[in-house]
Amino acid sequence: MTSSADPCRRPGLVPLEQALKQILGGIVPLPDDEWVPVHDAGGRILACDLQAPMPLPAFTNAAMDGYAVRAQDRGRLKIIGTAWAGKAFPGRVEAGTCVRIFTGAPLPEGADAVVMQEQVVREGDTVSLSAPVRPGENVRRAGEDLERGAVLLPEGKRLQAADLGLLAAAGVSQVPVRLRPRVGFFSSGDELRPLTETLQPGQIYDSNRYALKGLLRELPVVACDLGAQPDDLERLGACLRLAAEHTDVLISTGGASVGEADLLRQALILAGGEIHLWRLALKPGKPLIFGRVGRAWYFGLPGNPVSVHVTFQQLVRPAIWRLTGGRPYRPLRLQVPCTQPLRKEPGRLEFQRGRLHYDSDGKLVVTALSGQGSHQLAALCRANCYIVLPADSRGVSAGETVTVEPFTTDLFDD
Ligand SMILES: Nc1nc2c(c(=O)[nH]1)N[C@H]1C(S)=C(S)[C@@H](COP(=O)(O)OP(=O)(O)OC[C@H]3O[C@@H](n4cnc5c(N)ncnc54)[C@H](O)[C@@H]3O)O[C@H]1N2
Ligand code: MOO
């Protein structure tokens, strides 16, 4: 069945998958890079493959405190010296001898194994081995983690804690990383007030900008808060036009829907921009606008706070990620039984807020939270996952398996 003939498909609403394909299809990664010290490189995207300038471990060494021996030797061995981490034993282990050794110390010449000290009987300057020794036992071979010249870290990797450790372990002090896209964001709506003001009847605090700032903090971008704009076409148009000169991505919230005060589509045109997409078969997030203004990609997110989260995570984040040159990723999705029946109107792909938890048998299950309105931020804060219900679904019965997308900042490479 073609999608246009699908009776569950809402006419005029673009499926999320199609929208994402269209958005990502047009975006090419920003080409420029810069060198940064490793201690500033956390979260940045590596601009090219890096090769290991040395093997890791750099030299063969002991994995345990004990005695460096020749595995073929048996019986009582004479201790001829000590190998410390940072201070090698200068001699050689010959037949019938061994060297006292500590974890991380270079394995002395002649030795091919380390026996843990708990497994020997020491008497004066001798030890006796109580069991046969395997060659290579408790030995960390030079290059066993990475050979010199092997790929240390690949292009497009987001540098995380372990990566920074690996770079330092290999003696790399500066790394080439992609330039961070500049992302401007503003909220729109006459009802919005800053946190410094007392609310008059009908007014609300501008929460979306705070949430957006938090969402952007998880990405390697330079985020620029452009404040709150009133429902005024001229001012919105001017804001978009000016901001587009200085940003790679421009995000607004509110004014994306069909009411008379929903001015962002008109403002985009007034600013010389163009609309590529409007209205998705997505709940929450239906009124999303995607387009271009100047050199900036534009996302007009709906005003409802939960819709902001869902559209940012499902569309804006992958788009920004592509601009950063990061490796492609897919969100982690799990199949998990749902503890209760769920109802849903067919027509839009739905992201319900849920909690993954263990049931009394220790099995992972999910429960949808009460408060599924797209204004209900408190329920979003209690959630630890989305329950993803397909567009054509009419819901599920208790115990049925559903697709769950856990909240995580981890990205999973394809
Ligand atoms: N007749 C129709 N009405 C609506 C439709 C529709 O298809 N037909 N769609 C609904 C859906 S779905 C959504 S989502 C909203 C989104 O509309 P807008 O993008 O135009 O957003 P606003 O109307 O400006 O605001 C919606 C809601 O969110 C509050 N808001 C806005 N900005 C902020 C902010 N910065 N911080 C906190 N809260 C904010 C605003 O006060 C409204 O309550 O439209 C439905 N309507
Ligand atoms: O799409 Mo709206 O975001 O359902 O409330």
CATH class category label of the largest domain: Alpha Beta
Spatial strand arrangement across the major sheet: 7-4-6-5-9-8
Structural class: alpha+beta
Number of E strands = 30
Total separate domains: 4
According to CATH, the fold-level topology of the largest domain is Molybdenum Cofactor Biosythetic Enzyme, Chain A
- The percent of residues in helical segments reads 10-25%
Mean pLDDT, as a whole number?
Answer: 95
CATH superfamily of the largest domain: MoaB/Mog-like domain
Gyration radius from CA atoms, angstroms: 30 Å
Low-confidence stretches are: 1-5
Tell me which CATH architecture of the largest domain applies here: 3-Layer(aba) Sandwich
Main sheet attributes: strand count, strand direction, barrel closure? 6 strands, mixed
Textual characterization of the structure:
There is one protein chain. The chain is of the alpha+beta class and 414 residues long. The protein folds into 4 domains: 3-32 and 179-326, MoaB/Mog-like domain (Molybdenum Cofactor Biosythetic Enzyme, Chain A, 3-Layer(aba) Sandwich); 33-54 and 151-177, Alpha-Beta Complex (Molybdopterin biosynthesis moea protein, domain 2), CATH 3.90.105.10; 61-140, Molybdopterin biosynthesis moea protein, domain 3 (Molybdopterin biosynthesis moeA protein, domain 3), CATH 2.170.190.11; 334-413, Beta Barrel (Beta-clip), CATH 2.40.340.10. It has helices at 16-26, 161-169, 208-217, 233-244, 264-270, 305-324, 377-382, and strands spanning 33-37, 50-51, 61-62, 66-69, 76-83, 97-101, 113-116, 120-123, 126-129, 139-140, 151-153, 174-178, 182-188, 192-193, 204-205, 222-229, 249-253, 274-278, 282-283, 289-293, 296-301, 329-330, 334-337, 342-343, 349-358, 364-368, 385-389, 395-396, 401-406, 412-413. A hairpin with a 2-residue loop joins β20 and β21 (296-301). α1 packs parallel to α6 (305-324), α3 runs parallel beside α6 and α4 packs across α5 (264-270). The protein is elongated and about 90 Å long. Molybdate ion binds at residues 283-286, 302, 304, 307, 374. This is Molybdopterin molybdenumtransferase.
